[in-house]
Design goal:
Elements (H helix, E strand, L loop, with lengths): L1 H10 L4 E2 L21 H4 E2 L7 H22 L21 E3 H18 L8 H21 L2 H10 L9 E3 L17 H16 L8 H14 L26 H14 L19 H14 L12 H6 L9 H15 L42 H12 L3 H11 L4 E4 L23 E4 L4 E3 L1 H10 L12 E3 L10 H14 L5 H4 L28 E13 L6 E13 L2 E8 L2 H8 L15 E3 L1 H8 L26 E4 L2 E5 L15 H18 L7 E6 L9 H13 L1 E3 L2 E5 L2 H4 L5 E3 L11 H4 L1 H4 L38 H10 L7 H15 L4 E3 L2 E2 H15 L2 H10 L7 H9 L4 E5 L5 E4 L5 H8 L11 H18 L9 E3 H14 L15 H13 L2 H7 L2 H5 L2 H10 L7 H10 L5 E3 L2 E3 L4 H4 L5 H11 L5 H20 L9 E2 H16 L4 H6 L9 H21 L6 H7 L4
Parallel strand pairs: 11-15, 11-17, 12-14, 13-18, 21-23, 24-26
Antiparallel strand pairs: 1-2, 3-4, 5-6, 7-8, 9-10, 13-14, 16-17, 19-20, 21-22, 24-25
Pfam families: Glyco_hydro_15 (PF00723), KPBB_C (PF19292)
Protein name: Phosphorylase b kinase regulatory subunit
Keywords: Calmodulin-binding, Carbohydrate metabolism, Cell membrane, Glycogen metabolism, Lipoprotein, Membrane, Prenylation
């Protein structure tokens, strides 16, 4: 076969290849089947000695050769019953792997695409197509048997409820005795959905019924939250430590992103589909996956610096990202770290299939991963994958490079069709198929053969290092007829492309390889996710931010580099006034608005109503499916126009939702959120049409001191420019809708959702307002007083009241601005006795009264009452889980707790109910009712700052919310002008807390020292240490410095009675690994005082400088950091006679002369040489002399 291929390549050397499939196809009409009778358009024959007939004969011979290859190497192992392909490389028998089966089906389908160009194909196109359909439907049916798991998983994302990725190849049942380990593979579902879209686009019929349509919709639901679902990855190993732990994988998220793009608005019945066979995707979920994926790249996960699975993600078959810089960085990193002489490693320290791995041990011990370093197996199939990537990029040099490297690695074997008919294809009776022929087979892997290497080293007379020459041996499965179908499928596709029989457009009918704006447009009836063709560019502009505390007299300004994306996107703003009175008031300022009645018959609904509408999507009683999970729609989803049951509906964003968290009651924060929403839409809008942003204006918005800020924002909107990067246009709704992005919810009908359900929803909220009257100015609108009084719920006058007295007080006393606090405390005492469902009077419970108090507190802007009541009602922000994920994917760790008490570490994405349990546990809510909601405020604001100004978090690996809240309290005390003034966080508005957080994060000791501005003059050294310690900030390369110290400390490092041993730490981890940094942070978290933590960091830095400049020094005994700090403080006390030694030491500047560093250096040197004296039993060393010898400056 090899000689035959070579001769054919030589014969076709003069043929120029034209890619006829690259033209963009309008619409979804791809019914015309291209023919090899148009061969001159495909094969340009320049050699006059060869005519058209000869070239057609060559093509037919090649196709016949590949047909026989597919029959022998792929279809011979397809089950007659399920259509699945047998994976016979594992220890289990009769196992079919989903990912491998999808690639096998793709290889068969690829050859079918070639035969579709031939008029007289002898039925082979149909045969190959149906074989691919049989496999895809086999996977679908296996999954449909687990519909109960899918229903639970789409809401919980728990590994135990995940769809299985392995099935019995005979009957499609779950594997007996197999556990849930490795089953959660987001990538498996994503690749399946992506391939499903490709095959249906090529006119294959795979989905047969509405039940299957609903099931595919449920699969989409299950991957929408891939951005916060840790899984086992495509290799089923989880983290690289192989300890049965899941983690976020960039490859899984990227494949989910690509699958969502392919499925959005896709008709599963193809060209003949109906409106109810269309798949819908949450555009906000897609955007979160996109942001998370782009943030993770080029890293694969927390434990894997890179992974060969990323080659499948940024290239064929996924093409999940089209940012050339991001793709190049990812691919280059894979090549630099993973490429070997015999293929690519899957990831560093991958021990699977090595001769060092124990065959009967599923998981590794914590200390054994080091032995796999530089002993990983190398997989040749990635060379074929890189060749395919080169073909898509039209990079012939890359194709030649990897094919040249791959050819010597292939194995020539003699194939015979298996005798067992149960796995054979139905058309394997041809006598030629049973005749032995030599074939090129993809080797499963090459492993480092230590036995052969040891024998070779012993026989060699020269003394050489084994690391200089590693001996590889190939896996022997292929020699016994056990083929690596995954790799063989990729190799066949690579050959089809390289021989120019298969075009890249045949392999990718939906044009994933093209940028989204250049892909064929789908039916305009449904929205399509695509990169906008607008001009976008980024500039690094120093942006001045103002850090304001509650005291407006004290302000600081810092310059932070902000990446601003400029776009010509115009956002349509529709302003809706809740009453005619408010409309008239705003009209006097030239701001035109509409009332809900004026926009009829168009409807504006709360976001919760849209969630109810989508609850019917994918619902199926036979399969036990409910509809879309009750997830709130983000700002992108609310910017679309919806056609629901012959009605046109819009939704206003969650920003204006009055039933949401109390933060929406802060007018200043609301305006800031509006600006953030508009900036977010400008950056992230990827849909066809212009977004419509609905602003809901209520009379209470003009009753506070921030009314001038609201009018200023509305004036900017009227003028059409919010900022240099945000363009808006204030429009009437009837005008804006003509150019909007319209989504038709055809899955709804009058039987499911009657029209009466939609008519009064938008107006009901405003019927209590007076639409009569003539108001000419803002003075006619009542003003809202602002109160500042904290709540001491542990000591109040109602503690001695009986339950009947408490009920009488609540029922007989009107709620006013004066009695609001007393009503709250009285209700709290009843809450302690019976909880939220305790009766106050008939049909009126504690819960009802607290809800009423919350509304009144929002009107009076009483933040202490608002926070207290919200916490009692166990309120939680909807976007809390995405906020946590946003921090985690940027390499941060989050802890929740109260300063000075136990903290809960969040190192992987969590579901909202899990976060809810942490916040309202005894550890937080039980210790402080206010902290349960203050921590939510803090988390949301930190996530916003992380997106906007990530530079604020430089040097902060672990975000300890309780400690940051303590830093804000310290800053609040520092900014007080009156020492007798009592100001607590509970009474501050959410916007004030946000500004304080901004001030704390943007002012660290390093910036203050460098800028030398007002902030550094105001802050003492003690306060700087408190701030840095409280926000857990460390210097640049701090963790690498600790690694260097540990390398020269055989006894390990001791801090707060916690020992970090040198071994196996150095063996199991690397200095650049995130897990090592987290281990150091875990030790630092034992320190209870922020200022002392800062001293610990300074001590490590001083030790690093000393060891770096004196490479001959090392610690003989255990490095006890607490002991060194105590000795430094004692030395300071001896020389200064300080009465408060620690407090005065905290106030020392960080300097060698006259500062804390000088004392630390002297103590470190004394510690080093005292240990040397004890070790060598020499007593004639002069410590002062040694100090002079050491280079520290």
């Amino acid at each position: 076969m090899m000689n035959e291929n070579t001769s054919m390549k030589q014969r076709l050397a003069s043929m120029a290849y034209l890619n006829i499939g690259n033209q963009s196809i309008s619409g979804s009409n791809r019914s015309r089947r291209s023919s090899w009778s148009d061969s001159k358009k495909v094969w340009n024959v320049d050699d006059e000695s060869e005519n058209y007939s000869d070239s057609r004969t060559l093509i037919l011979k090649k196709l016949d050769m590949y047909y026989r290859t597919i029959k022998r190497q792929i279809l011979a192992f397809q089950s007659l019953t399920t259509g699945l392909f047998l994976n016979h490389l594992g220890q289990e028998k009769h196992i079919a792997n989903v990912v491998e089966n999808v690639f096998c089906a793709t290889a068969v389908w690829s050859l079918r695409q070639c035969y579709c160009k031939i008029d007289n194909d002898q039925g082979r196109a149909h045969e190959l197509g149906q074989a691919a359909v049989k496999c895809m439907r086999g996977i679908l049916i296996c999954w449909m048997k687990q519909s109960n798991k899918l229903e639970v998983f789409k809401g919980e994302q728990s590994p135990k409820d995940a769809l299985h990725s392995k099935f019995n190849v005979i009957d499609g049942s779950e594997i007996e005795g197999i556990d849930e380990v490795g089953q959660l593979q987001i990538c498996a579902i994503s690749i399946y959905l992506l391939t499903l879209a490709q095959m249906i686009t090529s006119n294959l019929e795979i989905i047969f019924s509405i039940d299957e349509v609903n099931f595919v919709q449920q699969l989409v639901f299950s991957i929408e939250r891939a951005y916060r679902t840790p899984d086992y990855g495509i290799w089923e190993r989880g983290s690289k430590y192989n300890t049965n732990t899941c983690e976020l994988h960039a490859s899984s998220i990227g494949m989910a992103k690509a699958a969502l793009e392919a499925m959005n608005g896709f008709n599963l019945y193809g060209e003949r589909g109906a409106s109810w066979s269309v798949v819908y995707v949450d555009v906000d979920a897609h955007n979160r996956n996109r942001i998370t994926f782009d943030t993770l790249l080029p890293r694969e996960s927390a434990s894997k610096n890179t992974d060969a699975a990323l080659l499948l993600t940024v290239g064929w078959p996924t093409f999940a990202v089209h940012d050339a810089t991001l793709v190049d960085n990812t691919v280059r990193k894979c090549i630099r770290k993973l490429r070997g002489t015999h293929g690519f490693k899957r990831f560093l320290r991958d021990g699977q299939y090595t001769d060092l791995e124990s065959e009967d041990q599923r998981f590794y011990q914590e200390t054994e991963i080091k032995k796999f370093d530089k002993n990983e197996c190398e997989w040749p199939m990635f060379f074929a994958l890189m060749a395919i990537d080169g073909i898509f990029k039209n990079n012939s040099a890359q194709v030649d490079e990897y094919l040249t490297a791959l050819n010597p690695l292939l194995r020539r074997t003699t194939e015979v069709t298996p005798k067992k008919p149960c796995h054979a294809s139905s058309r394997s009776n041809n006598s030629e198929l049973n005749s032995p022929k030599p074939r090129d087979m993809m080797v499963h892997y090459y492993y480092v053969d230590h036995l052969k290497q040891q024998n070779s080293s012993q026989s060699d007379s020269s003394n050489r290092n084994n690391d200089q020459q590693r001996t590889f041996s190939c896996s022997a499965e292929v020699l016994y007829g056990k083929y690596f179908l995954f790799g063989q499928s990729i190799w066949i596709i690579c050959q089809l492309l390289n021989d120019k029989i298969l075009t890249i457009s045949d392999l990718d009918p939906i044009r994933r390889y093209l940028p989204p704006c250049d892909r064929p447009k789908q039916n305009s009836r449904y929205s399509s996710i695509q990169d906008s063709s607008r001009y976008q560019y980024s500039l690094n502009i120093p942006k001045t931010i103002s850090n304001q505390s509650y005291d407006s007299k004290k302000q600081t300004k810092g310059s932070i580099i902000s990446n601003v994306t400029f776009s010509d996107l115009v956002i349509h703003i529709v302003a809706i006034s809740e009453s005619v009175r408010l409309q008239q008031v705003l009209a006097t300022y030239g701001i035109q608005t509409q009332t809900p009645k004026q926009i009829e018959p168009l409807l504006i609904l709360p976001p919760a109503e849209l969630v109810k509408a989508y609850a019917n999507l994918g619902a199926n009683k036979k399969l036990g499916f409910t509809g879309r999970p009750e997830r709130p729609f983000g700002v992108l989803g609310t910017c679309k126009v919806y056609r629901i049951s012959s009605k046109t509906v819009l939704c206003y964003p969650l920003t204006f939702e009055t039933t949401d968290f109390y933060m929406s009651s802060d007018m200043t924060l609301l305006l800031d959120n509006i600006r953030s929403d508009l900036e977010f839409i400008t950056k992230c809008w990827r849909l066809k049409g212009r977004p419509i942003y609905v602003i809901m204006l209520r009379e209470r918005h003009l009753r506070g001191p921030q009314k001038s800020e609201l009018l200023e924002l509305l004036t900017q909107i009227r003028q059409g420019k919010i900022s240099s990067s945000i363009c808006v246009r204030l429009e009437r709704l009837q005008t804006a809708i003509s150019s909007a992005c319209i989504e038709h919810l055809d899955f709804l009908n009058t039987s499911i959702c009657p029209p009466s359900d939609w008519e009064s929803v938008a107006v009901a909220e405003y019927r209590n307002t007076n639409d009569t009257g003539h108001y000419k100015s803002l003075t006619d609108v009542a003003k809202t007083p602002v109160l500042s009084e904290d709540i001491d719920y542990n000591n109040n006058k109602f503690k001695t009241f009986s339950q009947s007295e408490l009920r009488d007080y609540i029922c007989d006393t009107d709620i006013s601005i004066v009695s609001l606090k007393d009503h709250t405390l009285a209700t709290y005492e009843l809450y302690k006795n019976g909880g939220l469902d305790w009766m106050i009077k008939e049909n009126y419970r504690v819960r009802n009264h607290l809800e009423h108090l919350m509304k009144e507190a929002g009107t009076y802007q009483n933040w202490a009452v608002l926070r207290f009541v919200s916490s009692l009602l166990h309120k939680m922000v909807d976007s809390l889980a995405p906020a946590v994920t946003n921090l985690l994917v940027r390499g941060k760790i989050v802890t929740m707790g109260i300063f000075g008490h136990e903290e809960t570490v969040i190192d992987k994405p969590m579901r909202p109910n899990e976060i809810f349990k942490i916040l309202y546990s005894e550890n937080i809510f039980g210790r402080s009712i206010f902290h349960a909601v203050l921590l939510q405020e803090l988390l949301i604001n930190i996530a916003v700052f992380m997106n906007t100004y990530p530079q604020l978090f430089n040097g902060i690996l672990k975000i300890r919310l309780g400690w940051i809240l303590e830093a804000i309290k310290l800053e609040l005390e520092h900014l007080k002008t009156d020492p007798d003034e009592t100001v607590t966080l509970n009474i501050l508005s959410p916007n004030s807390i946000k500004q304080l957080l901004d001030y704390v994060l943007s002012t660290d000791s390093q910036q203050s020292t460098q800028q030398g501005g007002d902030s550094s003059e105001q802050r003492s050294a003690f306060q700087k240490r408190q701030m840095d310690g409280a926000v857990s900030r460390v210097p640049t390369n701090f963790y690498e410095h600790v690694w260097s110290i540990l390398e020269r400390t055989p006894g390990g490092i001791k801090l707060c009675n916690i020992l970090l041993p040198q071994q196996p730490t150095l063996s199991d981890m690397t200095d650049y690994e995130l897990n090592f940094s987290l281990k150091i942070e875990e030790m630092l978290s034992r320190v209870a005082d922020p200022a002392y933590r800062c001293l610990v960091v300074e001590m490590f830095e001083a030790i690093n400088v000393l060891l770096k400049r004196n490479p001959e020094l090392r610690f003989i005994q255990t490095l006890d950091v607490n002991y060194l700090i105590d000795e430094a403080v004692k030395l300071f006390q001896q020389q200064t006679n300080s009465t408060e030694s620690y407090q005065d030491f905290y106030n020392l500047p960080i300097s060698l002369v006259g500062g804390s560093t000088g004392y630390m250096i002297r103590v470190i040197i004394n510690y080093l040489f005292n240990a040397t004296i004890q070790k060598s039993d020499t007593n004639d060393l002069n410590i002062n002399t040694n100090i002079d010898v050491c280079k520290i400056s």
